[in-house]
């Protein structure tokens, strides 16, 4: 089969590789029909995630058809159309029993495209299938469902829920890429008083406005000043960091009000300073997290009911064999106006 293979920082290619096979009775093999590219994949290519070994097939978000199921799989069978979650979960360890699937201690967590071969391929092996793939109704389009493999659960769980968004609060989302946009869309579920989106790319700020942001601020236009002016000098109740660099994390800690929450969602490849000399007295809560995807069934229900604005996030579609072109477009959002790219078989 063909797959997008990581060859080290800055190097990847669409290569011929061996087909995956069932290695454990809890595995399924999925024929990939729809797949997408994540900002985390770009972090990997920049060398920010050193755990990823050269030779690994990238990707952790897909929709496809089960073509083979191990003997212990109970929830799906060959022929079923499924969403492949970015997180796999054994369901038995102490973390999984607490729905902290991202911290699975039995070989799960974020493994696809990280510690094992991933989903940017014609076929993918998914471990612990009973909790790691979700059957899809015919009424849900594949290019919509694939956005629930990662970005919507991540924006919702790690951004909105960890940030404890409440009605009438001020929420600032720094970084209006796909994850940040998902945070804007799901923050609206809690009726905040105002949502402020910050980014460098005009297209992403425009998308944030369409999804419910009340104010959009270009990164070079003094976002800290704008947040201060809009909150009578107090700062935001919730600051969601959705970029993954020191500058934006530290900006969020300066924009949050006393008693507020900073929810870090971005994937950081380097250190950031935590200015406790300023924060210790402000009763600020700082959270980090890898998504657990426990919200995926609920989000799928909302998608099926037409209550989740997903379609507007897909700006470019490609054939599966155009993976390298899709990476090029996705990696240059300021020039290409790309939000989320989707590839179909």
TrEMBL record:
Pfam families: ADH_N (PF08240), ADH_zinc_N (PF00107). It comes from the Bacteria. Residues 8-343 form the Enoyl reductase (ER) domain. Keywords: Metal-binding, Oxidoreductase, Zinc. Gene3D superfamilies: Medium-chain alcohol dehydrogenases, catalytic domain, NAD(P)-binding Rossmann-like Domain. Its cofactor is Zn(2+). PROSITE patterns: ADH_ZINC. Belongs to the zinc-containing alcohol dehydrogenase family. PANTHER family: NADP-DEPENDENT ISOPROPANOL DEHYDROGENASE, ZINC-TYPE ALCOHOL DEHYDROGENASE-LIKE. This is Zinc-dependent alcohol dehydrogenase family protein.
């Amino acid at each position: 089969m063909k797959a997008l293979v990581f060859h080290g920082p800055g190097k990847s290619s669409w290569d011929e590789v061996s087909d995956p096979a069932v290695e454990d009775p809890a595995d399924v093999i999925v024929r990939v029909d729809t797949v997408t590219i994540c900002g985390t994949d770009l972090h990997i290519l920049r060398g920010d995630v050193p755990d990823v070994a050269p030779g690994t097939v990238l990707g952790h978000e897909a929709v496809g058809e089960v073509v083979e199921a191990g003997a212990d799989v109970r929830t799906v069978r060959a022929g079923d159309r499924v969403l492949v979650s970015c997180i796999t979960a054994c369901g038995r360890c102490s973390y999984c029993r607490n729905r902290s699937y991202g911290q699975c201690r039995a070989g799960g967590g974020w493994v696809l495209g990280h510690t094992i071969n991933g989903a940017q391929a014609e076929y993918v092996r998914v471990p612990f299938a009973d909790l790691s793939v979700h059957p899809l109704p015919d009424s849900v389009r594949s290019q919509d469902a694939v956005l629930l493999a990662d970005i919507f659960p991540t924006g919702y769980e790690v951004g909105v829920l960890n940030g404890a968004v409440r009605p009438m609060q001020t929420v600032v989302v720094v970084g209006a890429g796909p994850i940040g946009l998902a945070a804007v869309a799901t923050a609206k579920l809690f009726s905040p008083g105002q949502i402020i989106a910050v980014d460098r790319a005009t297209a992403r700020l425009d998308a944030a406005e369409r999804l419910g942001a009340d104010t959009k601020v270009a990164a070079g236009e003094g976002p800290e000043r704008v947040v201060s002016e809009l909150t009578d000098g107090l700062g935001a109740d919730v600051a969601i960091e959705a970029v993954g660099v020191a500058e934006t994390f530290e900006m969020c800690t300066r924009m949050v009000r006393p008693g507020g929450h900073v929810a870090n969602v971005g994937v950081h490849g380097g250190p950031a300073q935590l200015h406790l000399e300023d924060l210790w007295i402000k009763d600020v809560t700082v959270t980090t997290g890898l998504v657990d995807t426990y919200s995926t069934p609920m989000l799928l229900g909302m998608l099926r009911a037409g209550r989740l604005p997903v379609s507007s996030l897909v700006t470019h579609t490609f054939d599966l064999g155009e993976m390298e072109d899709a990476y090029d477009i996705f990696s240059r959002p300021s020039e290409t106006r790309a939000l989320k790219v989707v590839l179909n078989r």
